[in-house]
Amino acid sequence: MLAPLVDSIVTNRRRRARRHRRVLGLLLTLVAATFVLTLLLGQSFTPPQDILRMLMGEDMPGVAFTVGQLRLPRAILAVLAGLSFGLGGVAFQIMLRNPLASPDIIGISWGASAAAVFAIVVLGLKGPIVSILAVSAGLGVALLVYALSFRNGVAGTRLILVGIGVSAMLESVIAYILSTAPAWTLQEALRWLTGSVNGAQLGQALPLLMALAVFGGLLLSRARDLEALRLGDDTAAALGVRVGRTRVLIIIAAVGMIASATAISGPIAFVAFLSGPIAARIVGNNGSLLLPAALTGAALVLVGDYCGQFLLPSRYPVGVVTGALGAPYLIFLIVRVNRSGGSL
Amino acid sequence: MRPDAATARSVPAPIGRLRRLRALWLLLVAAALLVLVALSVAIGTRDVGLSDIASALGGKVETIGEAAVAMRIPRTVLALLAGAALGLAGAIMQGVTRNPLADPGILGVNMGASLAVVVGVAWFHIETAHAYIVTAILGAGAAAIFVYVIGSLGRGGATPLKLALAGAATSIAFSSLVIAIVLPRADIAGGVRAWQIGGVGGATFERIFPVLPFLAAGFVVSLLSARKLNALALGDELAAGLGEHVATTRAVAAFGAILLCGATTAVCGPIGFLGLVVPHLARLLTGSDHRWLLPFSALGGACLLIAADIVGRIVARPAELDVGIVTALVGAPVFIWIVRHQRVRDL
């Protein structure tokens, strides 16, 4: 009697797992292809065999500069930042069950950015200590927004509005710090206001990679609990998830990733916000969003940076491209949510 | 704004006291404004002596101190006008949308004006001051309509929450577009910063004069709609029952506010949060009668913007802080406070 039902559930589940794997494979291919493309194509075309020979350690004067010094660090940094933003963003969106609750809208990225620019411009710091400060500031802002929106529990919408207010303040703080700096260029200012991977160096990739490994690993190890939280706190608790502890862990992991990436590339506009919903469109109802969103983030930053450098009439930092791309989507999202009448 | 004489005979004592208090407050705010204007001329990045100030006011520009003071005068005038315009526009918008979170900055209206000017300068080669102002006003109007339509889609019409979210999203969107347009165009007057963050620095009387007719029209339209806004405050059904044309009232008052925001943004760039904070402070002093609230908001806005400008000149010495940064730092906490405490529907 039950056997056919069980069978259909099992086949269904298998089919969904298969689809999930296929989507992941597809996204991975996309990211890899874009990565290779950005190495090959810039102001000039570099043949792949030259790049391979350079990577093997051969002495290739021209290629060593264009690819080794310029394109490769940039591409690596773009991928790492994209992965961090995508993964951290979608974790917040899933946990708070609201696409608008992404770290760049509720102020967390701005907190990290403000701390980073303060550390660099005012304190004259460099390297990993900047990342550590950015992560602490990101956590502080997360805590502050959460505390400020707490009033008989945290309503998602109140959290978002408080976050918008906090973001406005932090943005002003960044503008203030930049205005007191003895000398700052527009490019440097834009890094901290919209995000950019200009002037990337390989040395910057290591701390980011470590943060991604630690915090991303932590987050992925909680993927199951996060899925349960998607059903609502009560249901998650009934399913055996320790809601409070899980939430704290997820916040620490997500903020850690977002802030470490922000400390290096600035808050690349809307990548954290866009990756989740785009991934959700691609994956559908076929499994966890975490990895697909991370890969989507990487693809967004890579493609955005490439467009900003070579495809548009003039050179833009990646944040301007993703910002111009993400803004209409943000409005579209609000229209759709309003029309369906549901709570956000 | 004459309190209606017909009912003045038999008012209960508390209301009579409130009216006397209001008159007193009005005097106090006006006095504060005078003091701030004086300070704004006297204080700045460079310390100047009284003699320099006196001779500069007389029109002499010989020493560096006199030149500094001479530059502060148009700046103070602009801050006064812009502050009054934004404060008044904020009060009108809160009345029209019956939304405590309404503000020309938060609802994206200022950013819309900014974007329109940038687009006009980049692609349509607008150059004259009048073209700037008209473009800014059109942009402000388009942004206001856009945000209102987005915010009122779906069930429940334009709730405070939906409007605020739609406005914030639109504002972010416009601001990204402004960066994308201005960044490669080093030739565009003022560059990225001026169209992202509002400021009154570098004001000259030549830039202020063309705006005056638009501001004056905006002030008149706005102040005249005070009584009708009082009716709107009772709710749409009741206002209609009292014989008000609700839609017309809204449209006229909003038009006044848009004139004010557009004209201000054309000269100063987008200044946020001022229109949010001032009406709430004014309401503490006067209550919710728009015939008092609107003039108070205008005066208060002028005070606050001048004060913010003075602070901006002092804190970042030797550099200057754009006034838009200061208003955001002061205004955003107020925004958060309102979100937390006001009984905003749906929150």
Describe it:
- The complex is a heterodimer of chains A (344) and B (347).
- By secondary structure, chain A is mainly α.
- Chain A has one domain: ABC transporter involved in vitamin B12 uptake, BtuC (Orthogonal Bundle).
- Chain A is built from 14 helices and no strands.
- In chain A, helix 1 (3-40) runs antiparallel to helix 3 (61-95), helix 5 packs across helix 6 (156-180) and helix 13 (290-311) packs across helix 14 (318-340).
- The longest helix of chain B has 34 residues, at 64-97.
- Chain B is 73% helix and 0% strand.
- Chain B is built from 16 helices and no strands.
- In chain B, helix 4 (64-97) packs antiparallel against helix 13, helix 6 crosses helix 7 (160-182) and helix 14 (274-286) packs across helix 15.
- Chain B has helices at residues 5-8, 13-42, 50-57, 64-97, 109-123, 129-152, 160-182, 191-196, 205-208, 212-224, 226-232, 236-241, 246-268, 274-286, 290-315, 323-341.
Write the layout of secondary structure elements.
The complex is a heterodimer of chains A (344) and B (347).
Chain A: H1 3-40, H2 48-55, H3 61-95, H4 108-122, H5 128-148, H6 156-180, H7 186-193, H8 202-221, H9 223-229, H10 233-238, H11 243-265, H12 271-283, H13 290-311, H14 318-340
Helix pairs in contact in A: 1-3, 1-13, 2-3, 3-8, 3-11, 3-12, 3-13, 4-5, 4-6, 4-11, 5-6, 5-11, 8-11, 12-13, 13-14
Chain B: H1 5-8, H2 13-42, H3 50-57, H4 64-97, H5 109-123, H6 129-152, H7 160-182, H8 191-196, H9 205-208, H10 212-224, H11 226-232, H12 236-241, H13 246-268, H14 274-286, H15 290-315, H16 323-341
Helix pairs in contact in B: 2-4, 2-15, 3-4, 4-10, 4-13, 4-14, 4-15, 5-6, 5-7, 5-13, 6-7, 6-13, 10-13, 11-15, 14-15, 15-16
Structural features:
heterodimer, A: 344 residues, mainly alpha, ABC transporter involved in vitamin B12 uptake, BtuC, 0% strand, B: 347 residues, 73% helix, globular
Write a brief structural summary.
Chain A contains 14 helices and no strands. Chain A is mostly helical.
